[in-house]
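Dear support,

I submitted the protein below through the web form. The confirmation email said the job was done, but the results page showed an empty box. After a refresh the structure appeared. I'm attaching both so you can tell me whether what I see now is the final result or a partial one.
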Amino acid sequence: MIFAVGQRVRLKYTGEIGVIEQLAEGIAQIRLSDGDLIPTPLENLSDPEAVTTTQKLPVKGTYQGPIPISADLDHPTAVYLLFDLVNKGGPFEYGLLNLTGGSALISCQLQFKSKVVRKKNEKIGPMQYVALGNLSFSELGHQPGFHLQAWPVESQGSGKSLEKKVKIKVSQFFAQAVPIEDLGEGPFRLYQLLKDFSQEEKPALKGLKKYTQENIKWDHIERVMEKNVIAEKAVFPIELDLHIEKLTTFHDKLSNLEILKIQIRHFEKYLSDAIKLGVDHVYIIHGLGKGRLREEIHTRLNRYPQVREFKNEYHPLYGWGATEIKF
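What the results page shows now:
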């Protein structure tokens, strides 16, 4: 079946009918009758006039662990790369979900055609989720790949390095999403990376490389990660522009509520990073308008004990359209 912008289509798995607003490589943005904008692989679309029986996404089992997952996963107790698909037009927050009993120091790289574009270092504990960044809808067409390195935390210090690479296929990205109750609205897309931090089998290494990995020291890893934090703080931007055209390329297709959700999501992620890095102060550029975004930001700032004060005063660069936050 050939698809075109403006064409009416049916979603195979829900039976809903919508109109194609945008087409990308193997994927389409569908505007439903209720106004929702949904990214969907072309293979999941059909002729709205065809007489069909609504298909259901298969659910073969239920994981009964501390974090319920309503889907059949090959290895429920594992380490996953997770994408939050709550913003149907992007951006999609991604992070690491650890459903094992182990802890590790991790370094995760986002790559486009083998070129590193983002890198994040974190520490993750058992049964934890750690956010690592955001992937825009347009970036899905750049053949994104992720490279994870992990150093398990053991009683003697850090264990041997574990590595895993995964490629993101656009055609499967939205088709296999699952809910995870403890992480919010969802749905989520999961990619299994490791079965366990401490039990992953590695091929035998020889010579100097083997000696280096067997004798790597915990304090060295800590020093490396501390240097990375210092470097991140040095280049961390002290301002965040929340005008929607700065955050997504699909802003002209969004409702006011969808725009506000995206802006708040970026604001909270930026604020969390600023607090984690120990930044002294930042500026949030919210503009003037009707003041709804400014009021929402001020309301949320009151909930952060790390915020010493914030003020919306005239600034020679931002006028009245920005709030200064001091930590």
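Response: this is the final, complete result; the empty box was a page-load delay. Confidence is low (pLDDT under 50) at residues 51-74, 199-205.
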